[in-house]
Each structure stands twice: as structure tokens, then as C-alpha cells.
Amino acid sequence: MLAGCRNRCHDSRVTITPDDPRRVFAHIDRTALAPEIMAYLETVAELPEILAWRAVADDLMAVSPGLRVLDAGCGLGDVARRLAAAVGPGGDVTAIDVSERMVDAARSRDAGAGVTYEVADVTDLPYASGSFDRSRCERVLQHLTDPDAALAELVRVTAADGMVCVLDSDWRSVAVDVDEPGLSSVVLAAMDTVSPQPDLGRTLRRRLVRAGLVDVEVRVHPITYTSPSIAAAAYPFVNEEIPPEAGIIPPELRDRWFAALRRAEAEGIFWMATLGYVACGTVPEAAA
Prior knowledge:
The protein is α/β, with parallel strands linked by helices. It contains ten helices and eight strands. It has helices at 2-15, 34-44, 48-61, 78-87, 100-108, 147-156, 181-190, 204-210, 228-231, 254-267, and strands at residues 68-72, 92-97, 116-119, 132-138, 158-169, 175-177, 214-225, 271-282. Strands 1, 2, 3, 4, 5, 6, 7 and 8 form an eight-stranded mixed β-sheet that branches. Helix 5 (100-108) links the parallel strand 2 (92-97) and strand 3.
């Protein structure tokens, strides 16, 4: 059974389309799961593991008062609002998302932070070249069929000597240990069908260099969990509350997988590890 599913998962990864229902993050405005996605993002924003990952990016970006900052793929705007406090009244933060519903939700949470929220596509940004001193993009490129087009746009709208910083996942770095290792392997292989760029994180240095950035630095942030109920807040394949129609887990394995996770939690044997990547580079004069 596992071998057969492994083959089917591999085939579906090849044939995934932009409108595939498994790609809910790519078309939030067209999915009935939008409320669940927003609740997920709110929970993730408070996780210590995610905050520590974002702190790595903060260190590399060195945002200071007076800077113009773009947050591309802003989600609910929690990072953009924090950046607005860092740049102060002399700076400016623009937060964009391709989802109108997400931008409306972010704007409603602003509470005077002063961020400018706009609906925009990161692969076709409506800004003049050199409009920003820092451009930031978190967990967006993994959802795109052409992440390099997005990077080219981020470089274009960033001023010379400015920085582009990208945070993204690498789903192929995930390791999960329960009492059925073969089952874990098949479920993790199925993640290739959820993201069009499942190994995006490990490719970031190459992509940033080819986009024309210099002094590219990549930092790898390890993230570990010993409880599936805690990991579920950030990783949908261990979250039993995500409905089956999301297509995260192969349907014939769903009950068996979550039963294994419950056993692992009860016995205190669960282990999960993954890598979060942060890559930042500087825009040279020639690219301005």
C-alpha cells in the first residue's frame, strides 16, 4: 500500500496545476478555507520557533529609522507593523499581498501603525525602480510557479545598496519520527504535491546571486518539535483539524497517519525537525 501511494504521490507532483485545490495559499480569495488560513497565520505569528526564525532575518536586514521597506506577501501584516515601528515616523513601510481578503484583514488590524497596505502581485510590482531601501519576502516563493520572476521584481524595486531578504521553507528538509517510519516517508513525499517549490529554501543563494545581488548571505535556522500538537500550529501535515478537502494528506492514509501521531504524543516519542532558510543580498549600483 505504501509503495503504491509513493508512486502516485510522485506522479501528482509532476501534474500539479496553479488551480489545484491543494494550493490554497496561492489562491486564498477563491477558497472556502480562507478563515482557516488566517487563523493559521495568526497562530504561527506567535510561535517562538517562528519568531526566532524572523529574528535571523531582522539581524541581516538591519532595518533602521528612516528607511523605506517593502513587505511582499504580508499576510495579516504582523511583520509589517513591527517594521513600521523600527523605521519610525521618518520611514515608510508598504505591505502587499496578492489576496484582497488578506490585505483587508491586515488593514483592519493596523491600529495606527501607519503601514500602507496594497493588493499587488510580487511578480509584477506596481512600483518604480529603486522605490525601497529594504524588500522582504517571507514564505511566498515556495508557492510560485516562477519564483525567479518575483526575485527579479524585488531587486528592481530596491535601491542601489539596499537589501533584499527572503525567508522560506524547505519541505524536503522535514524529518518526522513516529512508530511507522515508512508511513512518515510517504506523507512527507506527498508534500511535493502541495508546494510547486518544495526545496525552495536550499536554492535561495543560487537564485539571489543569479538575480544580480551581491554579498549574499544565507543562514539556516533549525526548528524542532517534540509534540505534534505544538507542531500542528505551523505545519499542516500534522494538523488534524485541517479538513480532508485541503488535500494535505493522501486520503487513504489520513486516519492511519493521525492515529500514529496521537500514539507518538501519548508515549512522548514524537520528534520533528526542519530547516528555515534566510537569504539576504545587496543591490549593486549596476542593478539600480
